[in-house]
Amino acid sequence: MSDRLLTPRFLVMCSFTFTVFLSLFQLLPTAPYQVIALGGSTAAAGLFLGLLTYASALSAPFTGTIGDRIGQRRVLLIVSLTLAAFTSIYAFITDYRVMLAIVVVHGAVWSALLTASGAYMASTLPPTRRAEGLGYWGLASVFSIAVAPPFGFWIYRFGWQALCIEIAALNLAMAAIAWRLPDDRHDHAEERAAQPAGEKRSIVELRVVLLAISLGLVSFAYGALTSFSAMFADDLGVTPRSLFLTMMACAIVVVRLSIGKRLDTIGHRTALLPSLVVASSGVMSLALTQGTITFAISAVVFGAGFGLMFPAFAAYLLNHVPALRRGAAYGAMIAAFDTGIGTGSTSMGWLIHRFGFRAAFAIAGLIALLSLPYFIVAERRLGYKVSRP
Predict the structure, then answer these.
(1) SS3 at position 235
(2) Chain centroid to CA 158: how far?
(3) Which pairs with CB-CB distance under 8 Å and at least 24 residues apart come from 358-363?
(4) Is the dihedral of CA 258, 263, 268, 270 positive or negative?
(5) Residue 185 vs residue 359, higher pLDDT
(6) Distances (CA, A) of 120 to 103, 284, 323, 389
(7) Is the pLDDT at 189 greater than 60, yes or no?
(8) DSSP letters of 65-131?
(9) Which residue has the higher pLDDT, 344 or 278?
(10) What is the separation, in whole angstroms, between the first and last Cα of the chain?
């Protein structure tokens, strides 16, 4: 395989991912407001993202293997059309409890998209530049996160139905882009041919799940920030309310363009460990913020750590799984990651309601800080080899 990164297949996949997160991050920050508008409490508002990610987490280890068997491109196409249907349904729901019930199924479908996207991109990237490529690919979602929340809140001014129709149109655009992707079913024909006939592989990559809990501890804070950073901005009188997500996205872009291109040379593990600490520090500092400047600084610190954490971990992980199991491995990683997001979103709604924003974010920061010692202990106990990429 050539060491070239910017291939047509890579660029088409980036456009697909940009559209995916452009639609998602219009829905996630606005959905809590819609839940409240339909009569739900702040805790119920947190359940929207919580239930979506829990459903994704529970189903990801299983949906991840589907792409390994039928092809990742085919999964991306089917899921895009299915998400368009779900978003259209949201437009006509008048009871927040029905909305929360629908999002559970939505989350299961979402997990298939995440695992198929990761596995497809892993097959696209040269192994010697895998972390760098994953970081650049991740910028597609970062750019969409930077623009999607303010755009989504602007559309929301015209009504919830208008927002849902616009997001459904983006989901259809995702399907059109997925149609243009090359078929990946022949990418690993030699590996499949060499696989012993009748060999059975476990559906769940348990070792990956256990190690990825370290990622889940940080994603606990990420879930809290995604759902409640806008509401905290309102409480502080900070404008625009999407400032945290926008500044976080900007920080991710900067670190991936400046440091991310060297992840494969300095070592995936070497980059991962300090990034866990930096991300945790950003959340803890948010509990002490006093205004717009400190609010933005917290976002930048968290974004810097989070921006390096995910590509470093994913590249580290892919060095320890066979090519034919990438979908299952990504599913296991998403299971731990989304469990953290769901737990953060769900419990933060209750914590904010009971103790206030500052105490809730302080707790989230302390939980994220546990990620470093957990990773080191789990890595040793699970038998992962500590080596450079």
Answers:
(1) helix
(2) 28
(3) 358/287, 358/288, 359/287, 360/224, 360/228, 361/221, 361/224, 361/232, 361/283, 361/284, 361/286, 361/287, 362/284, 362/287
(4) negative
(5) 359
(6) 25, 35, 11, 20
(7) no
(8) HHHHHH-HHHHHHHHHHHHHHHHHHHTT---HHHHHHHHHHHHHHHHHHHHHHHHHHHHHS-GGGHH
(9) 278
(10) 17
Question: pLDDT tens digit string along 140-149?
Answer: 887 887 789 8
In terms of Cα–Cα distance, which of 41, 26, 146, 58 is closest to 332? Answer: 58
Return d(Cα 179, Cα 174) in angstroms, integer. Answer: 9
In the block, residue with structure tokens 């930077």 = 146
Cα-Cα-Cα-Cα torsion 297, 303, 305, 309, nearest 10 degrees, comes to 170
d(Cα 73, Cα 86) in Å, to the nearest integer? Answer: 20
Looking at the chain, list the stretches that DSSP marks H as alpha helix, in order from N- to C-terminal side: 8-37, 42-70, 72-90, 96-124, 130-156, 160-180, 189-194, 206-236, 243-258, 263-266, 268-286, 292-318, 326-355, 357-369, 371-382
In whole angstroms, how far apart are CA 4 and each of 8, 42, 119? 11, 48, 18
Neighbours of 95 (CB within 10 A): 11
Report the predicted TM-score, pTM, of the whole model to 2 decimal places: 0.76
DSSP 264-286: HHH-HHHHHHHHHHHHHHHHHHH
Token pair in block for residue 299: 């976002």
**CA pair distance 77, 73, nearest whole angstrom:** 6
19 in Cβ contact with 167 (< 8 Å)? no
More confident residue, 1 or 377: 377
Residue 337 CB contacts under 8 Å (≥ 6 apart), including other chains: 57, 212, 215, 216, 219
Supply 267's token pair: 């070592």
Query: What is the amino acid identity at position 229?
Result: S
pLDDT at 363: 93
Q: Residue 365 corresponds to which tokens in the numbers above? A: 């920061």
Check: CB of residue 219 under 8 Å from CB of residue 238: no
- Helix orientation angle between 160-180 and 130-156, rounded to the nearest 10 degrees: 150
pLDDT above 70 covers a percentage of the chain that reads 93
